[in-house]
Amino acid sequence: MNAVTPPLLSLRGLRKTYNAGRPNEVEVLHGIELTLGQGEFAALIGPSGSGKSTLLNILGLLERPSDGAHEISGQSVRALDDDGLTAMRRRTLGFVFQFHHLLPAFSALENVTLPALARDGHVSIAVRERAKSLLEGVGLAAAMQRKPPELSGGMQQRVAIARALVLQPALVLADEPTGNLDTASSDEVFALLRRIHGEDGTSFLVVTHDPRLAARCDRVIELVDGRIARDAPVLRGEG
Amino acid sequence: MTARRWPPLGFESRVALRFLLEGRFQSLLIVVGVAAGVAVVAYITALIGGLQRNTLEKTLGAQAHVVLTPLEEVVAAARPRIDGETVVADTQARAQRLRTLANWPAVVAVLEQRPGVVAVSPMVAGAALAQRGEATRSVSVAGVELERFDRVINLGSKLVDGTLRLAPGEAIAGVTLASDLGLRVGDRFTISTGTRQESLRIVGLVDLGVAEQNRRSVYVPLRSAQSLFDLAGGATRIDLSLADVWQARALAAELARELPAKVESWQDTNAQLVSALNAQSVSTTIIRGVVMVVVVLGIASVLVVSVVQKQREIGILRAMGATRAQVMGVFLVQGALVGLLGALVGVLMAAGMIELFTRFVKGSDGLPLFAITLPPRVALQVALLAWGAGVLAALAPARRAARMDPAQAIRL
Description:
A: alpha/beta; B: 14 helices
């Protein structure tokens, strides 16, 4: 491989402390070392309270670490101000949340184009076409003009996935993307993530506590008490 | 489904509009609140404006805006006063005889050149007796150049009988005086001053709107008055009419410095009226201010609630790549939209209220008490004010939304 290309994501000695300097000060991440390459499909697992959400928020540039190095494609994000973080988020990241978090007042198609609207101030024809084809790709060609409350949980999550992909991010962060779905929808949504990964090589980091799903990723990172307890590739016997 | 057209609106306005439409009931509440406030402000502005205009028209209709008269004669000291010396004396004030303004034709010419001066009318005014048969009335005679004088007080509009002209030997009289003397247009009567007497023919009757003036006014040609009062070629006062009546005081002060004459503005002669009008204006301003504060607080409180309700959406917007400024913009635009819509509805409501006032509030004669209208300028002013109030009210909630921690907001 090309040794000069920096990894997509690199964390070194990353710490996060809440309520610093106060009596209720607590450190939830104790020096995380993590590298994620282009095109990886990794699971982040761990018991509740292990710091998964905090780590995901930091990776999503929604929270700032207290200490350590954090680089995206070789660029440090520690020095960026709020607008700089927002710009970086637009360029490189897509989000899928557990409770889909669509805007209820906007149609499915409008929800998908929202990141482009925020970036450009308008929705170009190219973006709209991409949004439509993404929605078709997740099997929602007929539901584009419907609003989230009119859609089932699985459909809503598929809209959220299309939204995460509309700006062609390098990395999609998915927080319990199937946590709120029944088994059938859950399998369907996960299969969709894998298919997208296979098609355009987008990297995925999926937070889950479903071991069945973790086993279907390529790499499992386990977080226990704010430390990485295990980081290993998934070995599969079957094809 | 057919694809909808997506107009190229900015992120902020599109999201703001959706948020407002989503919370339809809330939005309706604030729009109605803003509209009510705007309606009250616009209506009270129009009402007080109409009232003041009406009062001013009635008052200024029969008088000049600025009047020049000769300086009063004073008793001069027999020798100059020496510093440190105390003079113990009691001086009898002089009786003020009728005198002419020095060099008045030149003064008239100068005044006519002044910007803001619409009309200049020299006059000889004095007291006399009007007689017809057994009846005698004391009157004030004004000798005028009719064309100039008409431009100052618009005598033509006050004419109730006869024609508006003043040839030598003719007179125009107040209606009450005419009925007191039993005069009709075409009849003759006699005017006598201490020294002279002249027989005049009535050519017109005027209703000046003020009882005292209707009872005492007689207008004659300037020359007739000059000879009646022994002031050949003289003028005892000069009346001015201005484009802007509120400039009268400033102009009077200026003229008093420049000319050797006593200069009075209509405000000096109607001090009570002016203070009443001022009190009205101040009350109106206070009411408008209070109403606008209430409007701002109303919009702000609804938007604060909306920010709390939309916490999660705000977090999502941030995660989707909206900057703090954009989130702030979303709420500012909401305030602006609500202010604008409320302003439009409010102005319509004010127009309706004015219509009702004109239709149902009538004087004893069955005519509207006075004309009240909503000038477009006032409507625009109030609408802009409401729009600004909307943005102002949205400022605090918008900042709150912008400062929100996205990670925390999403978790809720």
